[in-house]
User: Which sequence fits this backbone?
């Protein structure tokens, strides 16, 4: 049986660091999409808030199986 | 509170030019998606119709906050 | 009338080869999305199963018109 | 019947802006090549003349059908 | 003797698949250009016709020796 | 006499469109740097403000001659 | 237990087409390397022999587990 | 009022890891540049010192508002 | 004396995060290759196991001096 | 008066080195095309002949003004 | 002690060739910046002067340590 | 008979220039690998030694036939 997967592009954010931002994005994806199989990092940025704190942002693509 | 954003890839078209094509895509996105925060231009093409008129096409990604 | 199109990123798989993987992805897209207009190949990979058989995977973007 | 198309890379210029530069390039292409079907933007630059005026330059590829 | 080669960018199409589209482009190139030495695949797309049939399009560059 | 040039990366913004954003960046560069010779567009984004208005942002590199 | 994999870049060739060239490269890899897990297509070219026949060349990376 | 921003490319280093290297670069930027608004990761490398210790290096671009 | 270095592409994995995956790959490289001088990150992905746990995968190139 | 330029992609070769290969390509271009204005290096390769001698190959694009 | 480095993008030119253009840029950088540690080639172009002579232009990034 | 080739990534260095660095890498490759067929330049960097002298570094891939 041939599977077809879909890729969805999401952005996780965290004040800790890039790894934490990836985990925030994955946590959200797994909570709302069934059968998440893999992720790929697309890019990494960060936004400096007025108080100087840094919000790290990681853009990832998550792949999940489309039900048959 | 950490936010998670989603990126959606859409193509705006216009017979005027690329700026008008971007605005057409944004107008459609803001009409159907809540909380559109930013856009990124991916690529620019155009299609020449039989009468020689040009349909400019701009591929953009729009980012919007996922509700919590 | 200006049209707006959406791009969706999907992965077709096949044990035959890359062309067959593209066709599997397109078949699925056309079955679930109305007005699929074009596709673009993003990348090609393959996964080697334990018995040595190869599952070819092609990532494509399909473009379709958003209803007005 | 299978068609074969050719891509030609040209640079339009304009003192107005990038959209005007694209139109200058397309106008020239349509005047000298039959069956121009589409264009793709490759890159955008500009040259600052001695009097400070700006010549915007847009590199595009135009695609046209090869006669059978 | 130093050779100089030229690269020409063409698009082959086929309803069969990408390999067939490459061969259609090469066939046309070899029929009209002498001394075609190599080709490189640039990108792969496809256009979905109104009846749902798929026209696969492969952009290739062909290299050929310029006569001395 | 061999010249050496420097490249500086700046971001112009405008609520009108991308061409206006490029001109805002160039205006600023020419006001503070002598001998601006050329510019290259690096990328185009935009930020959607709370009231829905769009701030178009274009990243360009400007090249200028280093005095001898 | 954390695994470490190695990537090796090889070029398959075939007079049939790109799919056949990928299979030739995989066949060789699986014959000489244990634990080949996946492949990624890097690029596709072809060489036109003197008699006009085409040797299709596909560059792939194969990934395999390093023994512990 | 249209803002113009500047991008500066800097390299943070750390023996801890990539996140720490990003923070070192940001700390330095915020200490010497007013109005740092965002950063983008360009690339990640590392240098292995003679004693085998690893100095992680992350190249980032920081964006800051140019005063009016 | 001119040195020649070799680059080897390997993939580190870890359930902790990307930094840990880089360190796993470096540890393995330094255990089997003499004179490892530097590494470059190529790409970052991750595989979601059946129990939902995430295996982070970082592709790096390690550079080492070839003995004379 | 707005100018339109054309870009042509050619490959220079030399047994000396890459600079010599660029000059061979430029020499040929200037001999057959009027108004060559600039060149851009696209890529550099080389072919090892049976006797071990190296033919360096540099792909360049040359830009020239189209007559009005 | 963690170091922070800065990258500056400059363009060297020479009528001799690309190597000479790189050296011209480095010479200028070392004359005006303390602690230049490395350079990376970004791109290579050239400008054909009215008398047919060629000005080779190489864009490089130079990295230097920021004083503590 | 279908051939399979392997690509190996090596870095040549020289105090003379980039062409000399390419030749140093090729010389080493031809001394240790049989059947080197071609090379491709991947990137060019250089390292500034403490005495200000420059070590030019060119990363190339060499392709060689795998014995049958």
Assistant:
């Amino acid at each position: 049986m041939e599977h077809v997967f879909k890729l969805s592009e999401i952005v996780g954010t965290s004040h800790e660091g890039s790894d934490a931002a990836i985990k925030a994005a994955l946590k959200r994806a797994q909570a709302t999409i069934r059968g998440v199989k893999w992720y790929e990092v697309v890019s990494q940025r960060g936004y400096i808030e007025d108080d100087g704190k840094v919000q790290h942002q990681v853009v990832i693509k998550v792949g999940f199986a489309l039900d048959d």
Notes: The domain at 5-65 of chain H is CATH 3.30.1660.10 (Dodecin subunit-like).
